[in-house]
């Protein structure tokens, strides 16, 4: 019998029985709380928005501290994500807070691909967690979870409508992270404009199918307050680390020539609502939604890409081992097929190469024969020319010899005639 069938039978046969006395497992919640407090908590916030909307200031105001960080330069050609982790302590609870900022978002002339580095960063954190889960020896209890739990999307207080960059980016992110839209520097527009702006933003998000994070209402203890706060989204916030004396109290505020804007005054902005919903009421739900919804979606898609499935083609349960074996056999079959294809391709290429070499050898032989014949022809021409020159030289020598002989004979004949005349003169007695 399969393990899944046994588990199903155990679940169906479960009975409720009364206890005769105190056992003690009612202390499990306390044990869980003590263990969680001793281990500490982590929370990761992604701040997305254009330059100059007060993202860093709002983070300092939310956590009532001054986060030290290097000032960002906005001369990069693209969007860069900068992550900073801080250890915070409140009472006996420790929080490892990671703030990820989008440096250069919206600074480019061409903003078409501004969302891609953000999506890649979120997927990279999911992939790192998945790889840790798939290890044989896992250390998830000490693993620093870097998955983004909340995305605060800062909207410029234009008072008109959302920019196309905002709509495209939120649409790409809504299936990967819990988006909480906020109107930054809301003191830049009037109350009436702000109300209309909120309605316009909500309408555009709905019409474009952007799924923002909704505060949960299934828990009775927070259902009322969360239901009320859902109606206030997007929150219009103001951030300030400057404290001014108002009445007899020092309060965070912004001083203007026309008056003072109090950060924690709900009549001035929604900062208190944001802090209550983000930190004091729904922080654990944001962490849970990240794990059970967004990470599970990424994990399922990734494992399906790898070939893992829950059911076979007949919709019957499929164990991980069976899936692994099926995938392994499929991989081996594909490997053998590729090996055969490579072998055939290798043989084909060898034959083609042999044919090319034979053709090249044939061309070389033909070229050699042509050169050899040409050499022989040239040699014959040279020999004929040499023979002709030798004949001319021999003829010249013969003519030269004949000329010398004639000349010699002529000289001898002239000498004998002179002697004869001298002798005749002598006989005649002539002088």
From TrEMBL:
Domain Septin-type G: 39-305
One GO cellular component term: cytoskeleton
Listed Basic and acidic residues bias regions: 419-431
Predominant subcellular localization, coarse grouping: other
Keywords: Cell projection, Coiled coil, Cytoplasm, Cytoskeleton, GTP-binding, Nucleotide-binding
Residue spans of biased composition, Low complexity class: 407-417
Record-linked InterPro entries: G_SEPTIN_dom, P-loop_NTPase, Septin
Region (Disordered): 402-431
Cellular compartments annotated: Cell projection; Cytoplasm, Cytoskeleton
Residues forming coiled coils: 321-399
Pfam families cross-referenced by the UniProt entry: Septin
Gene Ontology MF term list: GTP binding
SUPFAM superfamilies: P-loop containing nucleoside triphosphate hydrolases
PANTHER family: SEPTIN
Assembly with partners or alone: Septins polymerize into heterooligomeric protein complexes that form filaments.
Family the entry assigns: Belongs to the TRAFAC class TrmE-Era-EngA-EngB-Septin-like GTPase superfamily. Septin GTPase family.
Its biological purpose: Filament-forming cytoskeletal GTPase.
Name the UniProt record assigns to this protein: Septin
Species the sequence originates in: Oryctolagus cuniculus
Source organism phylogeny: Eukaryota, Metazoa, Chordata, Craniata, Vertebrata
